[in-house]
Structures are given as C-alpha cells and as structure tokens.
Specification:
FAD/NAD-bd_sf, 4 helices, flavoprotein, FAD-dep_OxRdtase_2_FAD-bd, 190 residues, 2 domains, FAD-oxidoreductase_2, Flavocytochrome C3, Chain A, domain 1, 13% strand
Length: 190
C-alpha cells in the first residue's frame, strides 16, 4: 500500500510510528537523477534494499507493497504542484514550494521527473527517547527511590520526561547543550 498524502503531515519524530503501522513495517524513499548524487554514502552500500526503474511506472512495479495507481497519481499531483519559477538550491532554505496540496512543502520541493529513478526501502530507528533517566534541575540523576545519585549527571536525548510521542526537531541538541553545561558546571564544582 502506498503511504498516502497524509503521510506528509507528520514531523520526522512521528514517522517511525507511522512506518511501523505500514504493511511489512517499511516505507519507500524515492529519488530521481537530479538528487541521487547528493545521497549520503549509506545509500550506496550493498545491504540496502533498492529498486531502479527508468520510468516511475517501471519503478513502482518493483516496489513491494505499493499501490501503483495511488503512487502514480500522488507523484503526478506532487510534480504539478511545484512552483517551477523558484530555483532549487539544496544548500539553503530556497522557498521552492508546492501550492495546493493538503500539506504544502515549503522548501526544497523538487519534481521527480528525471529517470532512472531509485527507491530505497526504509524502516524506523531510534533517534530520541521519550522515556529515560530522570534528572533534577541540576542535571543530577535521580534513582528509583527519588534520591540523587551523588556525582552522576545526565543530559541530552537519554534524559526522560521532556517530551511525549513527538518533539520539535533539534530540541535534543538543545537539551544536550543546556543540561550538558549545567552538568559540567555542577561536576566541576564537586
């Protein structure tokens, strides 16, 4: 089944759950030749699940679990919605956007129209814990009895109690920086 346009409504923190709800617990990332050269090195290892097609029609026939008709309709609507008057620039927020979609893409909207096309099967991974180690405002770790563990500090994404089910992108880095500084100062003063 193709993950419909509603799939775009999620922040990346929610993608993992949505992917796990898909048949087979995977999704597909699709790229055309305009951006394939910009993919990270992990996309080039032998272990990736990748399919290639000279056309989108050929590509979707090779993508396990994808509704071909829904996929092709979605690609046509997406490509037609892109403002071609704004140049694409992957290095800055370029303002190249879609118009008229249920959830418009506001930067880096790029048509998928230059084959051969590549699709990579992906699943979710852990990038942020919503549970985790309990700390106090001084970044000291609290044990299961509610007592401070002397000399033990925590910060960053392993700290629990800050968010639940979703979080603003980059907030884990902010958490690490703020509580890291607090923990460092507290540890240095011991």
């Amino acid at each position: 089944m193709f993950a419909s346009r509603h799939f775009r409504n999620y922040t990346y923190a929610k993608y993992g759950r949505v992917i796990l709800e898909q048949p087979g617990r995977f999704a597909w990332q699709v790229f055309d030749q305009k951006v394939v050269k910009q993919l990270r090195d992990e996309y080039r290892i032998k272990q990736v699940t990748k399919v290639i097609g000279n056309t989108l029609e050929e590509l979707v026939r090779k993508m396990d679990g994808v509704d071909a008709e829904g996929f092709l309709k979605e690609m046509a609507e997406y490509n037609a919605a892109i403002d071609q008057n704004v140049p694409f620039n992957s290095n800055v927020k370029d303002g190249r956007r879609t118009n008229g979609l249920a959830v418009d893409k506001t930067n880096w909207a790029n048509t998928l129209d230059q084959g051969p096309f590549e699709a990579y099967q992906v699943t979710c991974g852990i990038t942020f814990t919503f549970g985790g180690i309990r700390i106090n405002p001084q970044a000291e770790v609290i044990d299961t009895d509610g007592e401070v563990i002397p000399g033990l500090y925590a910060c960053g994404e392993l700290v629990g109690g800050l968010f639940y089910f979703n979080y603003p992108g980059g907030s884990g880095l902010t958490n690490g920086s703020v509580f890291g500084r607090i923990a460092g100062k507290a540890a240095a003063s011991r």
